[in-house]
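step 4 of 6: structure.
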Amino acid sequence: NAGVTQTPKFRILKIGQSMTLQCAQDMNHNYMYWYRQDPGMGLKLIYYSVGAGITDKGEVPNGYNVSRSTTEDFPLRLELAAPSQTSVYFCASSIAHEQYFGPGTRLTVT
Amino acid sequence: AQKVTQAQTEISVVEKEDVTLDCVYETRDTTYYLFWYKQPPSGELVFLIRRNSFDEQNEISGRYSWNFQKSTSSFNFTITASQVVDSAVYFCALSEASAGANNLFFGTGTRLTVIP
């Protein structure tokens, strides 16, 4: 099993550009999550999904959108990138209250 | 509202010393789960332990041990005979059963530096 995979690993965006962070898991987990980690801080929940076709906002959803068309994939969309979205983004999936994290995507918006 | 506090921002110890990382949590749920994660310099998150609210037994895994005390809402993590490879940021996290989707709420982390 590859576990949770994320692409890209690094990305630099200009202000106002858009992009999609990809996340996939091969463990057949229903629950998936997107977190962001700002420097020196813990992770904060952006969006989560309890199954294909079902998504909901977390603590810091503004500026992001998600979709969940399949169990495996949970992409995160940034429509108009802002410097405040410079962060490391982690995707996770879970079963039985145990979350498995991807390696992260480091995003810089300048 | 749920909250996780890790008051120690940074700790430095000399190799082979013992070190305890503190975690205090707040929740109104009676059923919840507590976690510790390790984030080494490479950046990935490594799961260390999960404890549910009904199990207050302390746990030991090699050089790692965890002390869960509901009376003080604490879930502290001790590393015995620390090693340089233990240098990392350690996060405590809480998941409430009422959240429905196993969402995790993280503390701000403690950066541990083990000096050789």
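step 5 of 6: annotate
 - Residues 43 and 52 of chain B are 26 Å apart (CA to CA).
 - Chain B has a mean pLDDT of 93.
step 6 of 6: archive
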